[in-house]
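Section 5.1 Outputs to date
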Amino acid sequence: MSDANLSSVSQQDADYYVSLCWIDGTNNGEFISYQNATLTGLNRYNLTYLRRGVYGSNIMTHSAGSKFVRCDDDIALKIPYTENAIGQTYYVKFTSFNVFGTVEQDLSQVSPYTITLQGYNKKAVTESGAATLTAGVTRTISYNHVYQEAPYPQVTITDPEEGDMIYIENQTTSSFAVRFENPNLTPRTPLVVVIGDSISSGFPFTGDKPGNYPSDWASWTAKFRELSGYTVINQAVAGTTTDDCRSRFMTDVVALKPDYVIIEYGNDCGFGMDNFSRTQNNLNAISSMAKTYGIKIIFVQPVARLNMTAYGTYEELVKYKAYHERMYMAELLLGWPSLKGYYNPLDSGPDTVNLDYLVEGIHPTQEGYEIVGEWLTPQITSIIGSGSSSTSDETRNINYLVYGV
């Protein structure tokens, strides 16, 4: 290396070929980029974190003393060309000046050089083949788009498990697909978070129970956990509204990284009946957060029965019932499954609940909670299935960061 200094760049710049260099060799040499340039002697550098075979050039062995060019703005001749010029043959003439630098040589006196433009349309992943991921280590893989300038599209894989592999397929000039595999993983028990109000928290049977019992021992979720074999975390709190769910969703749900969240709201403390748009906005926000973090929603929607006098007058009861039906429809419109039937297994007739299973006309007895859990479990498991594993086409843990498309 002579007449210039090599500077180090960031790894991202190396991935984007900001430090592009050319080394002489067979078949028009090889393009590389590097991250670190360490001076080891006079005009000598040690380059590390190399990207070899850049722009479709051949990776090859280079002899000591091979010509080396740093492809920056100081290059005398740098002519950009478009994708359709790749593979075409061009004829180039280079004229000289006289010894005084005042008269340029005529083109007719110069023999042409034949040049076939090398390169490729940059539709390949910068990884060679499949990328094997390390458990718990976020990995970003760059995707070289047809555009000649950075930034290029990327795929970011978060929370990978040991043995995960990522493949890029079906590349076009504007998109690409991700295939995710881990053939070594055995099915993982689904993690399910339940968030809701008092009829999911187990009210009024709260507090610790002597012996080895979970904190939600009285709720329907205890029976659901027992029968499904899932890992179930109950985050329900009596009096919780959709306002609360929206504000707590990141800490009470997303932070636990569940596969599914079961959302149950009975009355929303009544405000939704007078301002349903508020409930609707909350549900939209909750759904959006779940989609962003790859969490699937299952709604469980209780609907009041006409003999639930604890709701107040008959007119008030009818108002609550209409609100429950409206909430159920709003949930379906979000595209998630909604189970409208919390009180179904406790019914004694059409639109009539067996009050023997209710404490004060709304909340189930301990036996009532068990019956509800037994009834809901097969419906929920039919949606979730028996297990969740990182197998072919599984896309959990993959986020797309796509630029320049």
